[in-house]
Amino acid sequence: MNTKKKKNTPMKGMYLLPNFLTSLSLLSGFYAIIAAMDRRFTYAAIAIFISAIFDMLDGRVARMTNSSSRFGVEYDSLSDVIAFGVAPAVLAYLWALKSYGKFGWLAAFLFVACGALRLARFNIQVDTVQKKHFLGLPIPAGAATIAGMVLFFSWLGYKGGLKTVIMPIVIYCLALLMVSKFRYMSFKDMGFVRNRPFMATVGVIMLLVIVLTEPYLTLFVATSAYAVSGPVYTLILHFRKKPAEELIRPRETQAGQGGHQ
Hints:
This protein is mainly alpha-helical. The chain has one domain (2-189, 223-255): Four Helix Bundle (Hemerythrin (Met), subunit A), CATH 1.20.120.1760. It is 81% helix and 2% strand. The chain has a two-stranded antiparallel sheet. The termini are far apart.
């Protein structure tokens, strides 16, 4: 019995690896704030994407090594508030919202507040919500959408006032999407990868080639598409349920009429 416990129990060093990756995510988010304050907006946006990569890896590593812990979950959430809440809000404010004065920083604060609420709701529903879906836009995806927009404008080489018109709309929409009940794909179910590893590897290589061809444009399109996918996917699920209900109702009506006859 003792040998079995030793096999199932991960080494103490294993717990350090996910927390180390979370720390790297936090470091990248903090650097994004510093870069935005220095008006190096492209560097800040790239740092947010790097932070998102580390954030994705820490959860994967924790599950693979069976080293998940309550401390790790709480530390990850606190890190996410800074890296994906405060950092993109500061970036958006200094990049496009500062000219609005009080309304600009209030819009940035709304993004932070809704992101924190989104994380709190996720933490209390993590064991009950379906693993295939996220309820509301995940805060890393919201942060990546803002970062993707900054990179897209950098790719265009456009420094006009259009960003000051678009960003308030975008940041309000992202804030509301995070606290909404729209369903987003979580990509946690890796059944395709396990069942077809060769095809999955080919797909990853092709995706990498596409991203490296025009990284700023590709990241902008991918993050924006994911942000919009929630309402679209929820509507598709809604209309799929409707025909099924309509097929059941006529049968129930006919059965009821038959009973009266």
